[in-house]
Amino acid sequence: MLTNNDIKYIRSLSQKKYRQKYNNFVIEGEKMILETIFFASDKIVKLYCLQEFSDKYKEELIRFKEKIEIISPKELKKISNLKTPNSGVVLIEMPEENESKIFNADFVIYLDDIRDPGNMGTIIRSADWFDVDCIVISKESVDVYNPKVLQSSMGSIFRIPVVKMDFEKLHNIVEERKFNFYGMLMEGESIYETKYDFPIVIVIGNESKGISEKIISKLDKKITIPRYNKYTESLNASIASSIVISEIKAKGYRD
């Protein structure tokens, strides 16, 4: 049975300051819980789930039986951020960020001040789909353990390294490792005409302001997705990211 302290603690993890304080975050929903079991089982702290969920996935859950607590639908509603929760909630220990992943990468995405959780989660999901080596996010960007980011990532958060780092530190790595440093802008060379030399870092900017000036001044090349309709002002950051990642991957395979 959930105590009031349990409920208070789990609900507090919807806020960034408490996630950072306790080094825990929350995953919920059937698909996301299964992704956690398959790809981040060593980080599971506690699983609160309905009896039906436990029965349905008995084999998958057997090795976590000491970490499972069966709760009622009424209790689940008290700790869930979903409108219609139907499975459970997992408490997960935050993984340690591994900066060495950047040094060993050939294809890195740098997200400069991405604020929308849906965009962040979708970019992570797209990067996972195209097997990008690593994502680096600025310290001003939305927290990747925000519940909306996690839901939008659809489990990809467990499969692709995400490192938070300020630009100055990243740029030192770019110079040391001799990354080619490209940025997505409204004006630049068409992504379809650009030659991509690896290792490479692609910068995606803020949804409304784009890439900050301090970063633009350091770019090796400015690239853009050609616009075919003059009345459309801009592309959504996550859509733009998917397009450029796809093109870079395709060029890499063709070359």
CATH-level-2 architecture of the largest domain: 3-Layer(aba) Sandwich
Distance between the amino and carboxyl termini: 59 Å
Q: pLDDT below 50 for ≥5 consecutive residues: which ranges?
A: none
- Counting structural domains, the number is 2
| Class derived from helix and strand content | alpha/beta
Mean pLDDT rating: 93
Describe the largest sheet. Answer: 6 strands, parallel
Q: Give the strand order, joined by hyphens, for the main sheet.
A: 7-6-5-9-8-10
Order of helices and strands: HHEHEHHEHEHEHEHEHEEHEH
Tell me the CATH topology of the largest domain. Alpha/beta knot
- β-sheet strand percentage: 15-25%
Residues in helices, as a percent range:
25-40%
- Assigned CATH class of the largest domain: Alpha Beta
Count the beta strands.
Answer: 10
Principal-axes shape call: elongated
Number of helices: 12
Provide a descriptive summary of the structure in words:
- The chain is an alpha/beta fold and 255 residues long.
- It folds into two domains: 4-93, 2-Layer Sandwich (60s Ribosomal Protein L30, Chain: A), CATH 3.30.1330.30; 100-254, Alpha/beta knot, CATH 3.40.1280.10.
- 39% of the residues lie in helices and 20% in strands.
- It is built from twelve helices and ten strands.
- The strands form two sheets. Strands 7-6-5-9-8-10 form a six-stranded parallel sheet, covered by helices on one side.
- Helix 8 runs parallel beside helix 9.
- The N and C termini lie far apart (59 Å).
Present the secondary structure layout:
Blueprint: H1 4-12, H2 16-22, E1 24-28, H3 30-39, E2 44-49, H4 51-56, H5 58-61, E3 68-70, H6 73-79, E4 88-93, H7 100-103, E5 107-111, H8 117-129, E6 134-137, H9 147-153, E7 162-164, H10 167-177, E8 180-190, E9 200-204, H11 213-216, E10 221-224, H12 237-254
Parallel strand pairs: 2-3, 5-6, 5-9, 6-7, 8-9, 8-10
Antiparallel strand pairs: 1-4, 2-4
